[in-house]
Amino acid sequence: MKIHILDKTNSVLNNFIAELRNIEIQKDAMRFRRNIERVGEILSYEMSKHLSYSREEVETPLGIKEVLLPHDELVLGSILRAGLPLHLGVLNYFDRIENAFISAYRSHKSDGDFDIVVEYLAAPSLENKILILVDPMLATGKSLESVYEALKSHGVPKEVHLISVIGSKFGVDYIKDKFPENTNLWIATVDEDLNNRGYIVPGLGDAGDLAFGIKL
Ligand SMILES: O=P(O)(O)OC[C@H]1O[C@H](OP(=O)(O)OP(=O)(O)O)[C@H](O)[C@@H]1O
Ligand SMILES: O=c1cc[nH]c(=O)[nH]1
Ligand SMILES: [Mg+2]
């Protein structure tokens, strides 16, 4: 897996990540969602440089211009709930992409451990297409692993791109051998720790709750 950690280069992306983490600013759910969306836009722009391009002609009012345009068949898959604003960010840059939605939640056991439950999956065929799988938080990596396993019933993509906002070192390491070798991970930033409840530290808290409110 090739890992691209975007905050290794300073850019305006740092503002959006700082606001997502900030305990006061993150209380504004609309700004929180929009900041995740903006990070999705930046990450998908970077990812777009690694797609395949072919020559096409565009007719302007004054002549013909040869341009290089991406030609891959793309499928954008998001993990509910927190994946939704990130999904929108990628969708903003890929107008004709196909879409997939997969639910994943943590089912907690009495010993404090948890399993990932995948219940809902709506996806087109992935056969020979490029799968872009997005989830803002890569904590233990178990959600991405389970969702990818579930998506295998929809065909074999020729390439996988993972897009995430904040990862833990543990999670990034964990998923390395759970995806095909030619997978790329595009992630804004990676934090040192995970706590005993599987939350990224310092992270930002619970992305799904911050974007959409507390669930029972
Ligand atoms: O890497 P993992 O340890 O699997 O954790 C990451 C998962 O946790 C969050 O979802 P959550 O379970 O909080 O659901 P939500 O989006 O509905 O809040 C996040 O969006 C990931 O899907
Ligand atoms: O830190 C974490 C871990 C899982 N889910 C979140 O939203 N945040
Ligand atoms: Mg959550």
TrEMBL record:
SUPFAM superfamilies (UniProt xref): PRTase-like
Ranges of residues in domain Phosphoribosyltransferase: 12-213
Keyword Transferase: yes
EC id: 2.4.2.9
InterPro entries registered for this protein in UniProt: PRTase-like, PRTase_dom, PyrR_bifunctional
Protein name, UniProt field: Uracil phosphoribosyltransferase
GO molecular-function terms, A-Z: uracil phosphoribosyltransferase activity
Source species: Namhaeicola litoreus
Keywords for the protein's UniProt record, in alphabetical order: Glycosyltransferase, Transferase
